[in-house]
Amino acid sequence: MVWCAFLYAAAGSWLSWLVGRPLIPLNAERYAREADLRFALVRINQHADGIALYGGEADEKEHVGRALDAVLAVMRRLVTGLTRLTWVTAGYGWLAIVAPILAASPGYFGGDLTLGGLMVAAGAFTQVQQSLRWFVDNFNTIADWLATLRRVAWFRRALVDMDKPVGEIGRIERAPAADEKITFDNISVAFPGGAGRLEAAHLEIAPGDRVLVTGEPGAGLTRLFLAVAGLWRWGSGRIGAPASADVAFMPRRPYAPPGALRDAVAYPLPASAFDDEQMAAAFARVGLQRLSPQLDRSANWDNALSGDEAQRLAFARLLLRKPRFVCLDDAAEADEESRKTLLSLFDQELAGTGVVSFGRRDLREGFSTRVVRVVKIPEKSA
């Protein structure tokens, strides 16, 4: 009877695995489709004004509807799979009442077992198989856990593999600068659909220099900007840069973290690094005086500030940090009056700061003292 219990539990576990195995990819797909739906809703929330101004509500409703339909479709398949698994687990439990009696009945009818012995044998069978049915009872939870584990494992593998060279594409070497300058040596960047190369084989940028890095569309200016920050590795050559605390990077769309305004203006440094008077003076210098009394106000500043105000806030950060270098990726696209105010910072408070501007036109006429070009590399040679 002990061996019968083992065989019964093994058969039930195998059948549960056979029937419930499709639940693993279904759970993984459910999480993916739910993430797509959440992303679609967040995207609409972030761009609600633009969608309304373009009158694109119907189109966005269709996009969200497709994402919701994908969630409902995978949920229906998941419910069907769970129903099949429930038939197995429920049947396994009910059959366990009859199985020991059927297994021991030949002994009873042959006279080797009394009715009491038959009941004792059936009870022993039930106790053994109850101890062995954990896999059957918990396979639904195991399938969900395994799907989550696989998603985490895929994510970790993607993080590990992201720095590995793809095919023959090399990596840009980035090293600390011994002389506190930004240096470029034989730099080229590779990206999907093309590649670009810095015309100057060797370029040095010292504090106080103003350099415009320009090129035609598709030459990879933004990729080169990211390479200086260490966020883009694909290409070749070597970039030397000072410590990260000495270099400030300003992307096209300034970022302001949610929370108290004092945290947003000091970001990424702690708010305690500057006092209220310093913050108020920085606000006044960039034309954001109205925000000075709101340092303790908490908000989602990405949405609370207009594009021009977010850019002014980013320049207020520069006034507080006073970095040795500033790298801008088309990050001064304000109106003419605002541009004059913001760029005057580099003539006064930030006069000793090196400015590296990545874009197709100078920040203002005569602002940059040097211009270097990034040229597209033909696909065959890339």
What would a concise description of this structure say?
The chain is α/β, with parallel strands linked by helices and 382 residues long.
Describe this structure in words.
This protein has 2 domains: 2-161, Up-down Bundle (ABC transporter transmembrane region fold), CATH 1.20.1560.10; 173-376, P-loop containing nucleotide triphosphate hydrolases (Rossmann fold, 3-Layer(aba) Sandwich), CATH 3.40.50. The protein has 13 helices and 12 strands. It has helices spanning 2-20, 23-46, 48-54, 57-109, 115-131, 134-137, 139-161, 221-228, 261-266, 276-286, 301-304, 307-321, 336-343; strands at 173-176, 182-191, 194-198, 202-205, 210-215, 235-241, 247-250, 259-260, 298-299, 325-329, 354-358, 370-376. Strands 1, 2, 3, 4, 5, 6, 7, 10, 11 and 12 form a 10-stranded mixed β-sheet that branches. The chain has a two-stranded antiparallel ribbon with strand order 8-9. The longest helix has 53 residues, at 57-109. 28% of the residues are buried.
Write out key terms for the chains shown.
single chain; 382 residues; alpha/beta; ABC transporter transmembrane region fold; Rossmann fold; 2 domains; two-stranded antiparallel sheet; 12 strands
Oligomer: single chain
Q: Judging from the principal axes of the Cα atoms, what is the shape?
A: elongated
Number of domains: 2
- What order do the SSEs take from the amino end to the carboxyl end, as H and E? HHHHHHHEEEEEHEEEHHEHHEHEE
Radius of gyration over all CA atoms, rounded: 33 Å
What portion of the residues fall into strands of 2 or more residues? Answer: 15-25%
Q: What is the helix tally?
A: 13
Number of strands: 12
- Biggest sheet, open or closed, and with what strands and sense? 10 strands, mixed
User: In CATH terms, what is the architecture of the largest domain?
Assistant: 3-Layer(aba) Sandwich
Q: Class of the largest domain, according to the CATH hierarchy?
A: Alpha Beta
Mean pLDDT: 83
CATH superfamily of the largest domain: P-loop containing nucleotide triphosphate hydrolases
Head-to-tail CA distance between termini: 72 Å
- Which spans have pLDDT < 50 for at least 5 consecutive residues? none
Helix content: 40-55%
Query: Structural class, please?
Result: alpha/beta
CATH fold-level topology of the largest domain: Rossmann fold
